[in-house]
Input
Amino acid sequence: MSSKLKLYNTLNRSKQTFVPLDVNNVRVYVCGPTVYDNPHVGNARPLIIFDLLFRLLNQIFEKEKVQYVRNITDVDDKILESAKSQNISIQDLTKKVIKDFHDDCSYLNCLTPTKEPKATDHIQEMIELTTKLIEKKFAYIEKEHVYFEVSKYKDYGSLSNKKIDELISGSRVEISKSKKSPVDFVLWKPSLEDEPGWDSPWGKGRPGWHLECSAMSEKYLGKEFDIHGGGLDLIFPHHENEIAQSTCANETDLLAKFWMHNGYVTVNKEKMSKSDGNFITIHELKDKFDGQVIRLAMLSTHYTQPFDWNNQILENSYKSLNKWYDFYSDENETIDPSLLDSLKDDLNTPLFISQLHKLHQEAMDGNIKSGKKLSTACKFIGLFNVNAEVWKNQKSIKSLSEDEVNILVEERNLARDNKNFKRSDEIRDLLNDKGILIEDKENITTWKYK
Output
């Protein structure tokens, strides 16, 4: 008999059996992009992880009974700054980035959410939520700003495991002389003449970031729902503030029953940042990798753990897909329940992928049934979105630039110096697969494109 779905709940810091509030209406909300710039590989991870969760919930509870809402934040300080720096209108910027974001989702083979609300379409709901908080004395007005008064909410810090006294002396909270306390956060703020703004009881202005998600999740999923997801970096202050303002406004015990957070993405063990030159957008990857390679690479590490973006993991993902595609089938069968068990154990994708390798070996040994199981399982996690002919005819890992080749050649030389001949041979084979011929002569390595 198949196992029950278990998920790690950040709120309780433990893995728990998932039981929906309403088995006929399973509701998930995930924080989507703030559309000021093209999404980077760090943004790709929650897209893929929560897409997989959506697919799994559809399988367990039936597709028509699952609602997946992923918002778009299209009004924010970062958007204003980006539009100004590019000397374009906010509307032109957000329209372009939203289109690029949807292209990236398609590239990564992510299903379309049930709803994808934009913040600017829900200003009235945000004003109404803020009004309720003021009336219930959880918020106050100061110099055309509206602030949530954190001290009024006794459970503040329960998600992030932070104490208010410690936060007051911390550096991550917004400092303002208008606030009663440094930890109070903005619900509404005035807009300057050249900034987007909406009429409100407190003057022309715009919502605070945290308010947006509370208003949109309530509209589409209700005052309480099953799962709220996002990156680890959103636990505090964003998700903590969502809980505070939603539960206080609606007089509920919870906002979401389960809180799920994916781990950080690093690049060669270093934090990804534009200043360090290791900031990679999803768009930049399209000329080098098939989207399936990115998807499989991201799933190779458990979602709660850090994921390190590096050439080797991409190479391994490509090689695995290339082997598995020998057993691609156009037939659409139901996934084997025993394979689902690994995903039901808190989305244990590394275990699932190890099972795919086992099925591949069985298929290589002549087990036709295992080959079909492999194909079905790959499709289930969002792979095999093109048929075998298309896959084999496309160059799934494109040619490298000279700088990229030189880095790999240097890595190979280091591996040889350290007598790591396995890694040295892997790099040689990789370069060969990418149309690059290398030659070792008198302790000097040269290379050329074939």
Remarks:
- The longest strand covers residues 225-231.
- The longest helix spans residues 41-61.
- The mean pLDDT is 92.
